[in-house]
Amino acid sequence: MERLKNRIMALGRGVPLLGWFLGALVAVLIEQTVGNPVAQGLGLPKAPVLFGFLIVLKEPLLIPSVALYVLLIYILPLCVVGRLSAPVTNRVAGGLLNLSPGLSVLVHLGLLYLALHLWSSMSDYRVITLKLTLIAIILTLSLNVINGYMGEFSCSHPGFMALGAYTASVFSVSLFVDHKLFGPALLSPVLGPFLFPVGLILGGGVAALGALAVAIPSFRTRGDYLAIISLAFTFIVKSFLENMEFVGGPRGLSQQPDYAGLPTVFIWTVLCVWIINNFVRSTLGKALNTVRDDEMAASAMTVNTRRTKILAFLFGAFWAGVAGGLFAHVLRYVNPSIFSVQNLAEGLAMVYFGGLNSVYGSIVGAVSISLLSEALRPLELFKWIIIPLLLILVMIYRPTGLIAFKEFDIRAILRPKSREEGED
What we know:
Layout: H1 2-12, H2 17-41, H3 53-58, H4 63-84, H5 86-99, H6 101-120, H7 124-149, H8 157-176, H9 192-218, H10 225-242, E1 253-254, H11 262-281, H12 283-293, H13 295-300, H14 305-331, E2 333-334, H15 341-354, H16 359-375, H17 383-397, H18 410-414, H19 419-423
Antiparallel strand pairs: 1-2
């Protein structure tokens, strides 16, 4: 068993990220070409939409067929292409990085997006699952700024998401849609996609203003007051929206334009990762870590602790509002009941499962919990037994999460890999 493990790990040694992305692209192209015939040959009705998780939960007897499909379509092409192309992709990765780090990032992102686009194009279900997963990354990163880097425990993110979702929805619906609540469109729908970023920024700004209502009283105190006040804020926002007939009240608001396509959500996710990574590595981000570790010592070193915490709180709330605006336009419907305690529990699970104080951890946590939650959807109520149990196990054996306190160094990620480096 140990020998097999070493052989599997040896396949990945010396393969740069560019090689893995190339392997993923080849695997997706193979699935598009022969996915359905291979699936039918293995006794499956069609190519699995989510790596076979939904199939095996409904029909456990198909587990061997699903495992073989995933091996033939995804794992083998990914490993073989990655390994065989390593000499070339290492040279290309090194050349791009030396020529221009920005160009290297764009090439890697282009390959990643192409693979995701082709994978999701096989099913509408894949498209919406991928969009919601990308939005979950934004939400988790924004929550990690507060709960991880700042070291506080905030429960107000559903409220921030709701403010962002409704603000962006009112902006797009009132300006570009003939709506029963807002009347005729004020501007041509042709302008909608170009002005949509303005609506998202407005949503983030309103969420940040809402965060002031939590931050100003909370950061005058110590201990668990932020958790209590922020949870109360979430319920206040939800109740406020339920009683606002101007935005549909408890019935919700619908007819959002289809502006949140996969390219749009992908670009906003990349921007979020880049901006938040720069923020936590900046002087303000380092000051935030100092405040988290020892507020009195940080104050003694002339760090304005209250100002630092409020700025970080508003920054996290802004990105939660952007996530809410994207979420509303992906579903094309928004309702106050969506932003409930369950939404809070999912966000906290993503943060603490992936890892505190880590951009890596936020991405891993968001993707893992989102896909796991979707895969367990056929189990209905039992899903909310399995996920908390998994989280409890992580808290016992990895209290800070799977990938905690790890910097997201883009140059280190994109640089060429050597076999010796992989062995280390």
